[in-house]
Specification:
By secondary structure, this protein is α+β, with helices and mostly antiparallel strands. 19% of the residues lie in helices and 31% in strands. The chain has 4 helices and 15 strands. Strands 1, 3, 4, 6, 10, 11, 12, 13 and 15 form a 9-stranded antiparallel β-sheet that branches. It has a 6-stranded antiparallel β-sheet with strand order 2-5-14-7-8-9, with no helix packed on it.
Length: 258
Amino acid sequence: MRSATASLQHLPTDNLRTRLALLLFILVICLWGICGCAQNSAPVKSETTQSAETLPTATPAPQLPAPVIELEPDEQRLALADFLTFPETSGDNAASGWSEDGPIIRGTGTPKGYLYTQKTFENFRLRYDLRFPAALLSSASPLKENTGVLVYITGDQKVWPLSMEVQGKYVDLGTVKENGGAAKATQTFDKELQQKVIRPAHEWNSLEVISQGGALTVLLNGEKITTSEPNFLSSGPIGLQAEGFPVEFANLRILVLP
């Protein structure tokens, strides 16, 4: 460094000024290049970890409006107010797991129990639409979605009461079974026809139950799939079961028969 300074001191004044100007010019060019590179460099993206709260959730099953129906003469709708709950929840529908939205009665599936009508019925035609809204997201095969419509409920309320049941369990939809110690149902069930007319579990399936003197006839989407012979049970409240799966009943309506 000293030798370079000494050399500059011995240079003529014009040469010294020229070299200083050249050095200054080179310095300006270098600084300009450094600033330009800094501006053109790609910004570094900071890596962030997505919190559990912001992670996408599973898409819920779509809601389907209830099928549009017309009541026939003397046919009556059954609303949530027409039912009592078991287990009892002191009128708190939220705690019972049941709610109502227009013609749809929704059940969360819990707690395990059922709704039952305040009135008793013997000879009647009960019609309703049924679906399992969460079945679209289920990977189970076969589907385990389960519910049922109890008829001829007799004796004490319990899980499950003495009664007959029109199966809502998807794989057995429309069959008849016994509950609470009732005699086994003697029935004729057309499985092939059931498989032909049944719709996907998350869509609406329409059922019709005809009770005459303890004998039951069940239609699925307009086709007769089950008939059962009379049992020693023939009258009582009607119930809707909660069996661990979200379920929707729509357009519940009943026609009392002679």
